[in-house]
Amino acid sequence: MRWSPQLLPAIAAAGLILASCGGSQSSPVLRNYQSSSGKPVITPDSLCIKQPGGGYQCSGRDQEPCSISSQTFATEPTNTNRTTIGVGEVVNITTTGESLSVSGDGTLNQGSSPATLTAGATGGTVTVSTPGKYQICLANSLTFTVIPPSAVLYSAADGNVFHTQTIANIGVLGNVYLQPDTVSFQYVQYYEVPTNFTASGAWSCISGTTHNPASVSVQVGTDVPGYGSEVAGGYHDEAYSGSCTGNQTQASSESVTYPGEYSLDGSTFYPIMTITQTATETVAGAMTITKPQETGSTTVSSSNEGW
After folding, report:
1. How much is the average pLDDT of 96-117?
2. How buried is 228 (Cβ within 10 angstroms: 0-12 exposed, 13-18 middle, 19+ buried)?
3. Which of 1, 42, 220, 290 lies 20 to 30 Å from 255 when distance is taken between CA atoms?
């Protein structure tokens, strides 16, 4: 649509302005067409009508949606532009729109530059939206899938098996990871709920005593590819049978089952999975202790071994 230059003054005086549209006929795009003075430029490509409440509504060619992009604070996993994130993850949000809003279990901080989204404590979806920006771009949104930890992985820390020679006792030292490894749980705390052992044979005195994990929740750290987000701060899990007096070489068993939980604030906890630790001894004194993906073996007569 072309406008006669002779009509421009009359159109402007009537409260109408003309504004520039960029782009080709096949993919028209309405660009920013403000002059250096901050006032709309009058050119013969698109008609803009001044609105009673202020601003202008433009006809003519379509605008593109405003861009919304994201980048996770966590650099592991290495895909920092992913839209599947862990509970509590923090993400930088940038947009060409005027402002941002959030829906779902997440918190948006627009006081920082760039804005940040913090995922909530539960799984689901969180959507960040912009209403657009006048004469520049249209409304748009970006949706994140938020996932909680789904499993706890124990992996032997050093390959050693704790044992005291001639005593029916066995233990393994493990690193602990929250899975999956496709997101970061570095803003999460991990906690093992105390529960009681059941035991027989050489470990009968352990029956009814409490599995004694860390007394407080432990902060989780960086994601390790192939494992998950590692429980941080030099924390190691000590899976240990304990020991009793009496006959040390006999058929024996011991087990404890407890919930593994996560929290963002150290006060409200959510379940991850139920974990079972078992220990067995044969009549010949061969002992094995097992936790998910972690096993150690020795015999009563074996030499002393430390953690």
Report:
1. 94
2. buried
3. 220
